[in-house]
Fold this sequence. Notes:
Blueprint: H1 12-28, E1 35-39, E2 46-48, H2 52-57, H3 64-67, H4 78-85, E3 95-97, H5 99-105, E4 112-116, H6 120-129, E5 136-139, H7 143-150, E6 157-162, H8 171-185, E7 190-196, H9 200-212, E8 218-224, E9 236-242, H10 248-262, E10 270-277
Parallel strand pairs: 1-4, 1-6, 4-5, 6-7
Antiparallel strand pairs: 2-3, 7-9, 8-9, 8-10
Helix pairs in contact: 1-10, 8-9
Amino acid sequence: MNYRHIFHAGNFADVFKHVVLVRLLQALHKKDSSFCYLDTHAGRGLYDLTSVSANRSGEFRDGIARMWSGEAWTKRFSDYLDVVRTFNPQGKLAAYPGSPLIARRLLRSQDRMVLCEQQVEEAGALKAEFPRDRQVAVHERDGYEALKAFLPPKERRGLVLIDPPYESPEEFELAGKALIAAWQRWETGVFALWHPVKDSGSVERLHRRLVAADMRKVLVADFGVAQPAGALRLSRCSLVLVNPPWKLDSSLSEDLPILAKGLAQGPEAGAEVRWLCAE
Length: 279
């Protein structure tokens, strides 16, 4: 695989995904019992926004950099921004945490997480982020295989984030099958599958596959900052949420349209939250 997330770190899709991730993890705090967080495509952990690679694409400028402005609308997302600020202690935006570091900030002493990354260099950087951390296990391995190996976890509660790079045309099918198989192994777990929205046919086939699998509670959050621009540039994405926490649908329905307006790159920006399957 050639995908390197540094070119996209902190862009609108990261902001959307991580705002929801924070909400999911905070919901798990409502019970004292421990939980497990599993990240199948974890990346390197921390991304240098001052690097040549990050500035070559400049995508973070229309993402986290807009959130950094401190405008009134960003206060709705202070829980997420507080986490990002811990990695920028001088107050100037210079680094962006990936999902592993965001999740680590939200683990309690009784919780743990399992991180998987297949790329050797990225996995090495990820391991360096958690030296001697007994609550974190980093594995250099295929994330889809990890779902079979680590589910169900010993904890009865938890969250699985499936966030592949979608380099391959077959990735939608692989991700959909992996999500269904993982849910069948652990039907009480919370799952979040991120995917781009460039080809409506791929998205529709994914949704049909999930419905056919008789999944009982599936929430879809669609998010876009501009009109779809084809295969070359990402402007819309989505999260498929299985077993979402109570009332998450209503809170996201209120907040995501505000986030989309704040990060808008065109008049077509917006968000929609809807149930794909509901008991």
